[in-house]
Amino acid sequence: MDYVFKQLINALNTGSIYALVAIGYTMVYGIIRLINFAHGDVMMFGAYFAFIFATSLPFSDTAGGVILIMLLSMAAAAIMGVLIEKIAYKRLRRAPRISALITAIGMSLFLQNLALLIFKAEPKVMPALVPKTRVDFFGLDIPVLTLYTFGFSVLFMVLLTLFVRKTRPGKAMRAVSQDQDAARLMGINVNSVISLTFALGSALGALGGVFYSLSYSQVYPTLGVMPGLKAFVAAVLGGIGNIGGAMLGGYLIGLLETVTNGFLSIVWKEATRWTDAFVFAVLIFVLLFKPSGILGKHVKEKV
Amino acid sequence: MKAFLIKYDRIISVLAVILGVFVILNTLIEAGVFSNYIRGILILVMIAIIMATSLNIATGFLGQLVLGHAGFMALGAYGAALSAIALREVIPSDLVLFLVATAIAMAISLLAGLVVGTPALRLRGDYLGIMTLGFGEIVKVILTNLEVTNGAQGLTRIPRIMSFPVAYFTMAVVVVIIALFMNSRHGRAMISIREDEIASESVGINVTRYKIIGFLMAAMFGGVGGSVYAFHIGFLSPTTFGFVRSIDIFVIVVLGGMGSLSGAVIAASVLTFLPEFLRDFANYRLLVYSALLVLTMLFRPQGLMGTKEIVISFRRFSDKIRAFWMKHRKTKAIEGGTDHGNP
Amino acid sequence: MKKLTVLIVAIIVAIGLSACDSGEETIKIGVIGPLSGADSLYGVAVERGAKLAAKEINEAGGLFDKDFEVIAYDSKGQPDEGVNVYNRLVDQDEVDAIVGGTFSGVTLAIKDLAVQEGIPVLTPTATHPDVTLDADNIFRACYTDSYQGEVAAQFAIETLEATKAAVFYNIDDAYSEGLALAFIDAYEAAELTIDDYTFNANTDDYSAVLTTIQSGDYDVVFVPAYVASVGAILTQAATIDFGETIFMGGDGWDGIEGDYADVAEGFYFVNHYAKTDPAQNVQDFVANFTAEYGVAPNALAALAYDAVYALHAAFEDAGSTDRAAVIAALADLSYADAVTGAIAFDANGDPLKAITVIQVVEGTHVVIDKVQGS
Q1: Distance (Å, rounded) from C-alpha A28 to C-alpha B31?
Q2: Using CB atoms, which chains have 3+ pairs under 8 A with B?
Q3: How far is A209 from chain B (nearest CA, A)?
Q4: How far apart are CA C321 and CA C302, in angstroms?
């Protein structure tokens, strides 16, 4: 039972990270119907930003220092996200879909190779900002890092949901994702809303990157590729365009991975070799049988 | 006779050029002017052309985003290699072995294309892209985990039966078949699907059928490219056929012009040769490629050739010469004419 | 049409020009390895080791009144690129011998071509068994993966007295798999408990599998992978209570004392050499390399260094750079001064060498033993 519990903790950790990144995908898709392939690489840069701040700021291993690094990385990534949108995607808003997709792929590769050039290929070791100890949490033995990861992920997800539901900019975001032209006619500055969406999505994705590097101790240029893809699968699973769906999908995918790596591998030794394939299989399954995902609505394509 | 020449002018011209280029290149190789090194690069160019033109069917002409084309190359390569290893004793002739192995490779990639394409092509562009990307990765995982492919250790002792003529003519056959297809009404149907899927459906084009045919053709010819690769390099490992390979092919198609075969041929040649000369800048290659993708989409989405083709035609060529000659004679006649008046 | 013709002519001219030869008479050694991209640290190490050896040889007067020239090209770790580069070295640069490929995959790809060409090939680091099989002109300076895995198992069984072991390896990597399989075979032959677990090239999250491994309560966990993966694994393992379990590795662990000294503390790995080996030639090499390049040499650099010196000895024995003579000389070679252990080749072209067992203690390597396998 203890073993099961340990694996569940792993699942929470992984799931939180996927959830954070998945939100970014889903928000951007909701607002401009584009799969932002570069989102995983923003996550990667989020991790690098954290690395840079952690190794240059003096008080990095205090609780306050950790939070500061988190916020700074999120802010830097938000700026990066907005810039990417302005440079690469804005011009192509009315262009054929395939052009925007190709640009997104190009942007993703560009960011990866940029990081490769700046930081070199060898993984950098992320300083252990959060102590790698375990703690007694209401009678349960949990790693401190998981508490941080899960706790802050939930916090920010709640904040985001409140923002989208209760504030005016949030309302504007919902309006633009429903009908861009109508929103414009209502006087909403669509460009600002889109920039805001990218900023928020990138910030959360970067936070995911920070926790990723803290959990797995390394930062390297292709860090965002696989988690990015899996987070995308999570977003689709939960219902693309639906923020709650992204969160749900994230935890489900985290659970699937942990179950395959942790449990299945006991009875079927070969299981760990097929984990990635299973995640893609989920994608294929969802797209074939319920493309709107768990929480999504099916939108008819208008002529 | 003349009527025949005029009617099939373009086909004859293209075939003549293909043959001519072959004769020139092959002579240079046989004579030793082109070293083994250059010959090796030329064969890599042939492979790149096959891969790019095959991808062009699905991405260029049909307008579907296919990000896992290396998966078909991998299946074709391993299929052909394993068949050749198994049949080497039975088939002494190199050429026949290659043809049989390639046929098997085509069948395997065709099957894979069917398995992936039938469900995937029902999806919208973005999802199709991700699905094909996933397909490429899954193929890699499968090939790494199968006993018979020797996994990460790599498949060795593949009969080295590739030669420049075989590679060249395989490429030529593939390109000619694709060109003929694209110039037929089937090709035009595909182009119309790319331009406006819903409109095509409403004028009676069976969109799903054409999408599948296009995807299968791309898969099949992708397998052919893999086969040529396997017999040229003589060693296969699953990591060769990853996402980077798919992107390399994809960049060629985009830069050459999605929907232009001549564009794909030119881009494939240039982008295979150029890295050789720019060896010092190898570290920047992918950075430049990705930047080019973005810049091309922003500023010149039609790539190099757009949807146009280089038209090789002797008739047009001879017409141009005749027109030029006429003009020349006319000018001379005018000048000569005024001279006549002078004593 | 006209522009296209000009372009084509220009390309043909450029190709022709690039075929031009340059320079005076030197003894040319071609080096093939990944010089760019994620694996560049391996190729660069090989290049540097080779160039240092060449420099020292030239400073001592060269050979046959000629200098040694090292020409290194980037294989990007890819077989097709390796073939390309090999052709360039043989056709264009007309090298006398090849030190390469660095990776087994590349070496296998060029094997048939090299056999046909009859050029002496001494790969410093390719460990796949097929590399030297049925190839009289191909030799290797390093021991094979299977030999390394076997010796590691021997050490675990005899010295560490580990009766229950697990292997955790990278299924996408031929090297990792090779060592793992040999280790498993040795344990099965000794009829001891052995379990295997895998990860792949994309894995970052080892926590789930590590939790499973921990529950198996093994004496030794053998992780034959490269520093990047091993570092992450050990770091994540540190948060799980592994008790007395000892982690072990192969030569891919070389360099682990850099960023991961604390999590690797007290663990063992087998290697071609140890830079802390007190032997004079090793210390001289380490000092010279560090002076030249500013970093300490890893095992790959040492192997490449030895490879060039071995070729030098072979050229000397043969009395010329004639290929057949050099190959014969290599087959009979006995180069005792090698940094990575005396080099002498068996009938296959594989060296019979001792393996150094190293323990990571307080951020440095401590030589525990030198084991001669069978």
Answers
A1: 59
A2: A, C
A3: 22
A4: 24
Peptide bond into C101 cis (omega under 30): yes
Query: Do C215 and C240 touch, CB atoms closer than 8 A?
Result: no
The reply to whether A220 touches chain C by the CB within 8 Å rule is yes
Tokens representing residue A267 in the block: 């009875």
Asked if the Cβ–Cβ distance from A215 to C260 is below 8 Å, we say no
- Residues C140-143: contacts with CB within 8 Å, 24+ apart? C140/C349, C140/C350, C140/C351, C141/C303, C141/C304, C141/C306, C141/C307, C141/C310, C141/C338, C141/C340, C141/C343, C141/C351, C142/C272, C142/C303, C142/C340, C142/C351, C142/C353, C143/C272, C143/C350, C143/C351, C143/C353, C143/C355, C143/C373
Residue with tokens 């430049």: B288
Q: How far apart are CA A219 and CA C207, in angstroms?
A: 17
State which residues of chain B have pLDDT below 50.
341
Q: Please count the helices (runs of H) and the strands (runs of E) in chain A.
A: 12, 4
Q: How confident is the model at residue A227 (pLDDT cuts 50, 70, 90)?
A: very high
- Indicate if the pLDDT at residue A186 is higher than 50: yes
Chain A from 3 to 32: CB within 8 A of any C CB = 3, 6-7, 10, 13-14
Q: Which of A14-28, A210-224, A285-299, C238-252 has the lowest mean pLDDT?
A: A285-299
What is the predicted pLDDT for the residue at C21? 47
The phi-psi region of residue C77 (left if phi > 0; otherwise alpha if psi is between -120 and 50; otherwise beta) is left
Residue C298's closest CA among C48, C105, C73? C48
Cα-flanking dihedrals φ and ψ of residue C63, to 5°? Answer: -145, 140
Q: Which residue bears the tokens 């071995």?
A: C310
DSSP label of C240? S
Contacts of A225 in chain B (CB under 8 A): 243
Pairing of strands A124-125, C220-222: unpaired
Instruction: Look up residue C25 and give its two tokens.
Output: 């008479």
- pLDDT at position A69 is 92
- Whether residue A102 lies within 8 A of chain B, CB to CB, comes out as yes
Residue C91 with chain B: CB contacts under 8 Å: 35-38
Residue A178, chain B, CB below 8 Å: the answer is no
Phi then psi dihedrals of residue C256, to 5 deg: -65, -20
Sign of CA dihedral C176, C181, C186, C188: positive
A44, amino acid identity: M
* C209:A261 CB<8 A: yes
3-state secondary structure of C63: strand
- Is A102 in Cβ contact with B254 (below 8 Å)? yes
* Spatial contact of B219 and B109, defined as CB atoms under 8 Å apart: yes
